Amino acid sequence: MNLKRTFGTILTILGIVGLIYAAVGFAQNSETARELIVFAVLGVIFFFTGIGLVKDTRDVAKM
Fold it and tell me: Membrane-spanning residues where (predicted)?
């Protein structure tokens, strides 16, 4: 089990959840715009960091 790949998947999922939460808040015209911007920025950071970890981690079998 590759810990980096698992952590990358978790970060990607958290990023998607943050982006969806921010998008729903913007669509409902929520009053807390600053909070939604923070969630959107963190979602983007988590998403691209997670994708980068999953993409750059190689599967190497140890014998």
Answer: 7-24, 36-54
In whole angstroms, how far apart are CA 32 and each of 16, 19, 39, 54, 57? 20, 15, 11, 33, 38
Band the pLDDT of 61: cuts 50, 70, 90. Answer: low
Q: Where are the domains of the chain?
A: 3-56
Residue 4, C-beta contacts closer than 8 angstroms, at least 6 positions apart = 53, 57
**What whole-number distance in Å separates Cα of residue 10 and Cα of residue 46?**
9
> Which pLDDT tens digit goes with each residue over 32-41?
888 899 999 9
Residue 23 CA to residue 37 CA, distance in Å, equals: 10
Residue matched to tokens 């921010």? 22
